[in-house]
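Help! Submission page says 'invalid entity' but I think these are all valid:
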Amino acid sequence: MKRKDYNLKEIAAHFGGQLLGNTEITVNQVATLEKAKAGQLTFLASEKYRPLLANTRASAIIVSTADSEATSLPRIVSDNPYLYFAKVSAFLNPLDSIVPGVHPSAVVEEGVQIDPSAYIGPNVVIGAGTKVGAGSAIMAGCSIGARVSIGTNTRLHPRVVVYNNCVLGSRLIVHSGVVIGADGFGLAMDEGRWLKIPQIGRVVIGDDVEIGANTTIDCGALDDTVIEEGVKLDNLIQIAHNVRIGAHTAIAGCVGIAGSAVIGRHCRIGGGTGILGHTQISDHVEISSYTMIGKSIREPGTYTGIFPFSSHKVWQKNAAQLRHLDELASKIKMLQQEIETLRKERS
Amino acid sequence: MKRKDYNLKEIAAHFGGQLLGNTEITVNQVATLEKAKAGQLTFLASEKYRPLLANTRASAIIVSTADSEATSLPRIVSDNPYLYFAKVSAFLNPLDSIVPGVHPSAVVEEGVQIDPSAYIGPNVVIGAGTKVGAGSAIMAGCSIGARVSIGTNTRLHPRVVVYNNCVLGSRLIVHSGVVIGADGFGLAMDEGRWLKIPQIGRVVIGDDVEIGANTTIDCGALDDTVIEEGVKLDNLIQIAHNVRIGAHTAIAGCVGIAGSAVIGRHCRIGGGTGILGHTQISDHVEISSYTMIGKSIREPGTYTGIFPFSSHKVWQKNAAQLRHLDELASKIKMLQQEIETLRKERS
Amino acid sequence: MKRKDYNLKEIAAHFGGQLLGNTEITVNQVATLEKAKAGQLTFLASEKYRPLLANTRASAIIVSTADSEATSLPRIVSDNPYLYFAKVSAFLNPLDSIVPGVHPSAVVEEGVQIDPSAYIGPNVVIGAGTKVGAGSAIMAGCSIGARVSIGTNTRLHPRVVVYNNCVLGSRLIVHSGVVIGADGFGLAMDEGRWLKIPQIGRVVIGDDVEIGANTTIDCGALDDTVIEEGVKLDNLIQIAHNVRIGAHTAIAGCVGIAGSAVIGRHCRIGGGTGILGHTQISDHVEISSYTMIGKSIREPGTYTGIFPFSSHKVWQKNAAQLRHLDELASKIKMLQQEIETLRKERS
């Protein structure tokens, strides 16, 4: 597959930036400083990687204003080299184009509306009354329930499952193994046995959301589970029934969000974190990885709760004391009183 | 889809409770206080939601004895409004009925016994010697191994995988992406290389179990992995080889249970929790979310081990001390001795 | 299915060890001390299980030199009974043999090279330009992208997804629901909206790797994500873009490894553990379960960071103090100074 070449002038015409050096040089792909070859454009976004400048074989580089003279390579100077790189990379690496049509092996029930520009892959199953918008691609082996709505230019990678009645916006990217709309974990105790509570809400997902591999988003118990526009979810995340995630929030892998939690807009949640049910997280909150959020957060800021690791022996000693922390605090209080007594006697 | 209407008398005839107000009023669905519309039945199960009573548009409500006069809506008074709601919801929202038969795209190997009342969906694959009981539904794209036994009225949602020889009871609900019977993580070290130990046990699952999306249950190494009747598993749970989970235990999402752990009956395990291998948890134990259980629990009760979160700055200070907790404890002991010395001198 | 019998002499001829008792006795399967039946071979690898010796119904047993006289059963004495058992079990339980050929329901695009000795199961989809090596089996419902390379004698269980361009070695075992090569979580912030960074690297997996059910391995952002030979991954593990895992490292279930982390060779990582992005873990490091590794580990050894659980009430008291640990440390420092003052005055 021959890649198209662009010279630096053409790139700057699209994305701005100041050009230095030979602006006629052409590139057709982005690459890291270390692995770049001739014909590739690299970038320097962190001073940590500056030592790699000397040996890069890239044809050109994106640098910050501060680094504009750190190299003699043909270069684009930008306020934000990482963002600039992201834009160029998206330009040089568009999504694979799709060939419209329904694969003969797909099983499409009656009353399904598929836009003629959409693609339905091999072995896909689509339930009655579902709509697939223009330019969307449902790839091999996906199973889409009945009465599902899928917007335009949305891409479901192979083997995604969407249950009945869910609503997916436009320009979504949903990775393989994702399950949208399975029953929430709703149970009532009835004389020692669990009674299942029907989960009759939907999952409603806004535009421009990306969902990572094997992530699960449960349908609402009565009302809907809602993922607002621009949310980015990594792999193996569990989102329980009736959760709401605010627009443009990003959540890293292995996070669990329990029922009815409401996450604000523009939050960033680190990997492995847990958020308990019915908590509310305000906008612009950042939560560190592997932190357990057991109550609502009302103020923007960064929140953390990680047990720091150490060598196993050191941990054993410290952990043993941890079980007696309350006693330690009591002892300190007693010591304070005794010293106070001694001091009074002295005077 | 027109829903069937029931008046409150008909509902009370099924589920008991005292009726107050207009008992001829009809409902056809349940809903929350906030979202209920005319024709819908809501419920008040927690005083937290009492302020929403005034503005609900529900046609009727389920309330506790204490709240029987808190509203003038037509109402059903119950000792346990949440359980009552659960029962009515199950009544108004039965599982989709299935149309018996085997989809022509299904690949069924020889010697498979499928009850004529069962449903086998599109692209399902079923291995030799497997049995599917009356009223069970194997939905689109499931892959069932050889010599698997599936009971009656069990439902496997799309894209479930069951490996060879596993035994699934009756009235199971298994959500999409679940993998039952993959190999346990059994390895022996042989001169710097891992030797795989064949995993020749089965997974045996009792009746009335529900399993959430993308949960995995490994087969036993030599003996079986066993999930007893009435167990409820949420999404993205990992159950390792030779685990046994006692009847009517409920486990929330993202839990990991390591090999040969034995969990009692009627336990409740919060999300994100980890249970180490070979531990034993007695009946009626409750474990908080995101707690790591590293040794056996012999007594019923609630157990917790969570690092409390705080603002990142406060956490940094506290976590720094945590690495020196053992030293802090030693200092306190020294201070006690020094004060003792001072006190003796004084007397 | 009739199993083949072997007498102890035949087994010792393959795997060594000293024979005691009736060496003509035959066995055809391995089993635990507790469940073994006549015709089965058991083993004693831990003194914990010695009490079960008296009642086992096994026909023969593998024991350590120290236990060579602890039973009168026909027995094989080995330095390492567990490893010996593993070898015999692998011998008695070979992988199911495969029947070469491509199932008629498989959808194979043009230019795919499938070795005549390979097996392609029902409903498998394979993209253009992919190669499948000799003796490999792609089981029901797998979806393999374009330009993928799969080595020899590799087995993909049902419903595995491999994205375009990935490279899988020989003798891999990949369990159901695994997703290899989905996009890494690469985003740049652009005026309040996330811009997706194309993930153009591959996943490259060495020989003899096993990957557990529903585990996800993302492709690299620019360079590749690399899993070296002999690595063993359990279920529901998340491996982010550009991670490198060294040869013969074993990782238990529910672990999350963030972007660009580099894990050494021969490491052992316990379940539920998190490893932050860009950390480096040297060879021969052991990490306890449910530990969060937030910075690089340069020395071999065992590392731990777990909040010890206790009864909920005890935890509440200790956790309350934890939020004030820094103040406690300050108080201790003050007390030390005051005592020092008192002592000086005394003298």
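Support: the input was valid. A stray whitespace character was the problem, and the output above is from the cleaned input. The CA atoms of residues 1 and 313 of chain C lie 56 Å apart.
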